[in-house]
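Researcher: Quick one. two chains, 342 residues in total.
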Amino acid sequence: MRRLLVATLLLALAGPTSATASEERPTLADLEDEVVCPVCTPETLEQSNSAVADRMRAFIRQRIAAGDTKSEIKEKLVAQFGEQVLAAPSKSGFNVLAWALPLTGGLLAGVAVGLLALRWSRAREPTAPDEASSNGGPPLDPELEQRVDEELARFDA
Amino acid sequence: MAARLKLLSQAAAVMVVALLIALLGWQIAKTEEGRGLSAAVAAGKAPPAPGFALESLEGEEEISLADFRGRPVVLNFWASWCGPCKDEAPMLQSAWERYGDRGLVVLGIDAQDLKFDGRRFAERYALTYPLAYDGNGSTLGRYGLTGFPETWFVSRSGRLVGEHITGPLDEETLERNIQVLLGAA
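Model:
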């Protein structure tokens, strides 16, 4: 148990550290799957063998050698090719919608399915015994019940 | 109350779907905008050339198609990484030098390219005609481009005339279209 806790802690610490290293000292591989080839969208640089993808890889290597961070390299590519060069939209401005809408939609769909399931399960619950008639069917209308009683009394008499 | 709520939610769902369909339609229309131009030019209809304003490849000024109204324009789309663009660049430079005194403008649009690479290309081929930079390819859909290089011919009145050349130019095709361009209003 103790070993498990230590391992979990180490993993938690290692996660952000590797993310920081990737941001500050990126490699070509770190960027290749986050940038698309502009003439062969939606292929990422990693998947593309086009001439422009080769030039972009050369540009990225050059910027890495110059000491740019991952964000800086991405910003430079966006400045040249526009936002569409990014494989995933940025999480700022209007682009936030691209992230927020699917999440909100999924959440709303989940709530709707939950509510419907609740409603269906309630509808299928058996009727309470005090509301049920003696034969298990739905209770009679009081007026009708009174009439039936009167008819039965007359019949008995 | 429950029925009203149900109706409202159904109306909202229909509206969301309608909105998504409208967005899809708008996107398709935007992408396909230039597709009809080539057929119109081939049919001799001379459709208006889509306007644009881009920064120059040197980044010092803005270049817009409207700036050249009244002059015949050879509009060439290229990129430094495109092989055939290298072959036709000297031909376009030569046309610019030969017909400049007759008002002809060669306007190059370096698209989907690294700006630095585009500048180096212009230096290597000693291009002196105006060069605009369209890194994100904003003009490509409007001109119905399917690759690089492609060339259009814009008349003095801003209409597309001659032929739409998809692929590399040759001397004969360029000359033929320049003659059409110089003769067009």
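Helices of chain A lie at 2-24, 28-32, 51-65, 70-81, 96-123, 142-156.
Researcher: Thanks, that's what I needed.
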